[in-house]
Amino acid sequence: MKAPTIADVAHEAGVSVSTVSRHLRGDRVRAAEGIDRAVALLRYRPSPAAQSLKSGKTGAVALVVPDVTNPFFAAVVRGAESITAQGGHTIFLANTDESDAREAEVVEDLLTRVDGMLLAPASEDNPSPQRLADAGVPTVLIDREAPSTGRFDTVLIDNHGGARSAVEHLLSYGHERIATIAGTVNSTPGRFRLEGYRAALASHSIELPPDFVQIGGFKEHGGYQSMLRMLALPDPPTAVFVANNTMTIGALRAIKDIGVRIPDDLSVIGFDDHPFSEILDPPLTVIDRPMEQQGALAMRMLLSRMSNDSWRESRRVVLDVRLTERASCGPPRSTPMGARRKGARA
Amino acid sequence: MKAPTIADVAHEAGVSVSTVSRHLRGDRVRAAEGIDRAVALLRYRPSPAAQSLKSGKTGAVALVVPDVTNPFFAAVVRGAESITAQGGHTIFLANTDESDAREAEVVEDLLTRVDGMLLAPASEDNPSPQRLADAGVPTVLIDREAPSTGRFDTVLIDNHGGARSAVEHLLSYGHERIATIAGTVNSTPGRFRLEGYRAALASHSIELPPDFVQIGGFKEHGGYQSMLRMLALPDPPTAVFVANNTMTIGALRAIKDIGVRIPDDLSVIGFDDHPFSEILDPPLTVIDRPMEQQGALAMRMLLSRMSNDSWRESRRVVLDVRLTERASCGPPRSTPMGARRKGARA
DNA sequence: ACAATTTCTGAAATCGTTTTCAGGCAAGGT
DNA sequence: ACCTTGCCTGAAAACGATTTCAGAAATTGT
Asked: What range does the domain containing A30 cover?
């Protein structure tokens, strides 16, 4: 019933507590065999609480994300866990629901229970990273930066470049009336994807009405509403770049509801791939990125930072994204003279 | 730099350690105010390790699932976490990758670190639940039973009924050649969904060749291969019930690759809904269930079991499922009479 | 004002480990 | 034989909280 302690093992094996402890930690010990037997017999497992108390290490790592239900974060969790599985750290998971307040709570709570933290802050002016730094908890940020506070190890992707190449792709088909459904602008991905969109347009000297930027807040409903507004415009866009996966679902639903056809009436390109993208009709062209890898890398950086307590310079890694072309983009319908077709598609 | 201890607080407030502890736990104490001040000043947070050691409680709960990347389990995690967020327990998350061996490892590891565990076992003859029972860790099983061992609190859904009504739906359109892509048969959902399928057919006295049951192992690739085999049959089915979400993706990809049309050539019904289902072409008819709710309920049951150490009878809850009809099912195209060829195989 | 209560306090024991610390015992050198 | 090394060992002191216990202070009743 009650869990055996190291003292029970010592007694059973006829040696002292210290000897058992030493053997378990790997020291050479005469009674090794007997101890192993006793451990097996009693099914002894050392108490993590006692070990933490003595060592100051918890053997745990926190992983704080806005929402596990988002396939991207689910993948990050999986990637992070795959690394941790080897090295004997366990993962505390927490959702923040994209709320700064909730994030503060969970961070405060987890602070003392872990040796390090992987954090995807809800917004860029979020105090959590600073709090973690103050508390001396090794931290690496995922997908979102914390520019307001000091530097942190960070694993980002090339949001700007990704958005830019998405828009370039649209431009290459001859589109000029290119709109975007943006995320929350005070988050790193939201900000840079929007800037990338603008940069691409600017470099082609294209100016667009402000209505062509709709804020969808990274939520499905926001994507739906944004697309509805977009299509209700007196002079609607011929192509849209949607800045994340969940908003894309909403946007496509709106498109379907209204009866607009892709890509004939409207070209669509999304950000972040999904198994479903391939079986949509038409299959969705997206900006893709190594999601699990992003989580795995972040975890590796965290573990390294945790062991090397050396004051390493903080690292900022930016992963490449990739355009995977499917069939949701094509030339604008009313193109003056079907002229500028590049990657012609059925 | 170094975290303050309760002794630091005591010293700062000019009282004894015991007094501080008492105040923090809610006792009436004269120096209350001064202690609060000291706590705030030093930013004191009690050490969870020390508290656990003394109390025997860890304040943590484990959540072990086959794969967070599966939207269903992601939803379960979210549901569970939403409950826990109130009551001050933190969640350890672990993936087992559907492997019994891996599950044994993580369970063994987590065993000592938590006050209770939510577990979706990889298979039905998995020793983990028994191990947990032996160790005296309150456990509730999610979505999958452990019939081989004793009774456990369990939160299931009506797999049998769901599968059955899926097939009935197909039957109501006049289909007779109804196939299924099943999951792993030694898991609860796999087994019962298959049985439900068979029961529906049996109750209409329909007999089908064994090829009409393909095992997809709950994986996308399995769904793809299964569907390929199905469509290559000399006398293929006119309707298919796919037993989970990921296999459905694979199956739909196969269908798309081959060029079969839904629902004209083949009706398809899936198990478990997804935001994408609605924007497929045609929108997918599915058996739906309250996913987050399932996780939330399981967590509530676990917490209750953890507090009421009373030896309550173990509860087995079965949640209802619901058919949400969209447009992937229709009448069979050619209803050839007497087309019931048996055991035809290349 | 004094005794009988009640409330509050601090010292110390405890939880289960790890880690000094001072030896014990065997081997090796002279 | 004796002394020096070198391994291994067990007792005991941490780690940071909670809780028992006995006693001090404050409150009450008469």
From this structure: 6-46
